[in-house]
């Protein structure tokens, strides 16, 4: 396993935590040493949850390894049942505890507890977080779902949303309303806010809506095979996908596909004058497979962008993303190494990035606008406001998500272009202060700083002030590439100063 400052996915027991934290009446007993007990940090801080995750740890230390850690685990199980009174428990080991091979699943089954005990076998050194969530939810459904008579009205289950999911709370609400417009009630949403008793009722629905393939597909396949429930294959993210989803549900149920689209603003806005000057922008898309596929379609077909690169970090989605990339005439990037992603973004030099929290940081380093469209995300991407991704309102939200970074980036570029203007230069201060703007800064000799050499670069390459000013007139989305090309040209020519002439010569050189 790699240690890094940021990872796209944690180990599989974090996926199990996401399922347990999403549910009610379920408790997770995790055999884990000190250092693996970070669930509170993940869920209460990042997702801003108002209650602690239902996870108990054995929290063994180094000195415990010479004694009976198995007894320590059994004691923790009994304490969790006595204290929290859950309807069921899931048990497993963290990646570190897996090495001591105590077999938490076998130990818990021998305790004779009065509630269902669901063992988890999560291979920490072969699989990752999304697999852990998918496998955990599958095991819960496999152990608890009971044969049921179908409901009198047509109903469905919504499968897949978990804690730490991307906009899962709002997506469930929007999707529930969309299904209601079609005359379909929701039987159970799971794992999010479901109890073990709710899981038992899953087979009463007529079909399942798979909202998140990463975390719910194994359970959907199980219910289809063992309880005769078909599941939807289209995730309704974007206008086209939402219409396809409605048609798919209509085919499954025989109901009308006519749904009120009066709230849908995205198609008109994306054709409006305010947006058309942003069409043709080159975008690079990276994240989990489901959101990448959805946003590639939105970017190309609904926003008029050019998709220059796509990829995903979860290898379970590698095959469909590679097939999609082939359809777009590009090569997919399948990796969980953010440095590879950064290198690909630099190579493609897009004008916008659609990605995760990681790509937000990459965009800041490269000076490229970024919109976050996929987990993993940080606290700012769990808004208090209603902000779904699915359905027609989700399409409106996505329009804002994609357009605003470009608009702000364009504004920054315009301010940079007019940097030498009396109102906008660096020392002018806020424009609304008018005559109170400070004078240009001066150096110790009384000369203006703007007349001096600017910005010392690696390898002793120095940008002279006239060249630096001209560079800043280049649009923000290609400025980084122009800087790198010019520095490379200068080094190849043995130059240590970049003048205005050097910049023009480099431009001519690379234009050939």
Automatic annotation (TrEMBL):
It catalyses: chlorophyllide a + oxidized 2[4Fe-4S]-[ferredoxin] + 2 ADP + 2 phosphate = protochlorophyllide a + reduced 2[4Fe-4S]-[ferredoxin] + 2 ATP + 2 H2O. Its cofactor is [4Fe-4S] cluster. The keyword Iron applies. [4Fe-4S] cluster binds at residue 36. It is an enzyme of class 1 (oxidoreductase). Coiled coil: none annotated. Transmembrane segments: none annotated. The active site is at 274 (proton donor). Its EC number is 1.3.7.7. It comes from the Bacteria. Residues 12-405 form the Nitrogenase/oxidoreductase component domain. Substrate binds at residues 409-410. GO terms for biological process: light-independent bacteriochlorophyll biosynthetic process; photosynthesis, dark reaction. One of its GO terms (molecular function) is metal ion binding. Pathway: Porphyrin-containing compound metabolism; bacteriochlorophyll biosynthesis (light-independent). Binds 1 [4Fe-4S] cluster per heterodimer. The cluster is bound at the heterodimer interface by residues from both subunits. Keywords: 4Fe-4S, ATP-binding, Bacteriochlorophyll biosynthesis, Chlorophyll biosynthesis, Iron, Iron-sulfur, Metal-binding, Nucleotide-binding, Oxidoreductase, Photosynthesis. Protochlorophyllide reductase is composed of three subunits; BchL, BchN and BchB. Forms a heterotetramer of two BchB and two BchN subunits. Component of the dark-operative protochlorophyllide reductase (DPOR) that uses Mg-ATP and reduced ferredoxin to reduce ring D of protochlorophyllide (Pchlide) to form chlorophyllide a (Chlide). This reaction is light-independent. The NB-protein (BchN-BchB) is the catalytic component of the complex. Belongs to the ChlB/BchB/BchZ family. This is Light-independent protochlorophyllide reductase subunit B. It comes from Yoonia rhodophyticola. The lineage of its organism: Bacteria, Pseudomonadati, Pseudomonadota, Alphaproteobacteria, Rhodobacterales.
């Amino acid at each position: 396993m790699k240690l890094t400052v940021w990872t796209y996915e944690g180990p599989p027991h974090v996926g199990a935590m996401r399922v347990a934290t999403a549910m009610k009446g379920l408790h997770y007993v995790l055999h884990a040493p000190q250092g693996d007990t970070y669930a509170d940090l993940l869920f209460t801080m990042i997702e801003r949850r108002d209650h602690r995750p239902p996870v108990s740890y054995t929290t063994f230390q180094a000195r415990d390894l010479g004694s009976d850690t198995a007894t320590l685990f059994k004691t923790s199980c009994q304490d969790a049942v006595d204290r929290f009174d859950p309807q069921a428990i899931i048990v497993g080991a963290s990646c570190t505890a897996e090495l001591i091979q105590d077999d938490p699943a076998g130990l818990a089954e021998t305790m004779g507890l009065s509630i269902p005990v669901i063992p988890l076998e999560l291979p920490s050194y072969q699989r990752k977080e999304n697999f852990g969530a998918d496998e955990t939810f599958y095991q819960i459904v496999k152990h608890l779902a009971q044969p049921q008579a179908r409901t009198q009205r047509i109903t469905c289950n919504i499968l897949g949303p978990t804690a730490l999911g991307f906009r899962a709370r709002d997506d469930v609400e929007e999707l529930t309303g969309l299904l209601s417009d079609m005359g379909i009630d929701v039987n159970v949403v799971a794992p999010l806010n479901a109890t073990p008793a709710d899981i038992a009722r899953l087979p009463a629905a007529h079909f399942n809506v798979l909202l998140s393939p990463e975390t719910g597909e194994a359970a959907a396949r199980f219910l289809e095979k063992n309880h005769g429930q078909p599941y939807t294959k289209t995730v309704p993210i974007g206008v086209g996908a939402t219409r396809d989803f409605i048609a798919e549900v209509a085919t499954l149920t025989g109901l009308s596909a006519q749904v009120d689209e009066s709230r849908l603003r995205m198609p008109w806005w994306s054709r409006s004058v305010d947006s058309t000057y942003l069409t043709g922008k080159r975008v690079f898309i990276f994240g989990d497979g489901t959101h990448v596929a959805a946003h590639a379609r939105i970017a190309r077909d609904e926003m008029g962008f050019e998709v220059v690169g796509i990829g995903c970090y979860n290898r379970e989605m590698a095959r469909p993303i590679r097939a999609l990339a082939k359809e777009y005439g590009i090569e997919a990037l399948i990796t969980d190494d953010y440095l590879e992603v950064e290198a690909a973004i630099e190579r493609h030099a897009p004008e916008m990035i659609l990605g995760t929290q990681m790509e937000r940081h990459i965009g800041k380093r490269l000076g490229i606008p970024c919109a976050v469209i996929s987990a993993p995300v940080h606290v700012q991407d769990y808004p208090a406001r209603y902000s779904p991704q699915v359905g027609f309102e989700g399409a409106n939200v996505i329009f804002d998500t994609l357009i605003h970074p470009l608009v702000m980036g364009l504004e920054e570029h315009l301010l940079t272009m007019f940097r030498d203007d009396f109102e906008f230069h660096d020392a002018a201060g806020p424009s609304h202060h008018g005559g109170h703007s400070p004078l240009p800064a001066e150096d110790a000799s009384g000369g203006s700083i703007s007349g001096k050499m600017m910005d010392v670069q690696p390898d002793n390459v120095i940008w002279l002030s006239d060249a630096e000013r001209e560079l800043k007139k280049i649009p923000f989305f290609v400025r980084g590439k122009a800087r790198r090309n010019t520095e490379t040209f200068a080094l190849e020519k043995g130059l240590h100063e970049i003048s205005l002439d050097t910049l023009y010569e480099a431009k001519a050189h690379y234009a050939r």
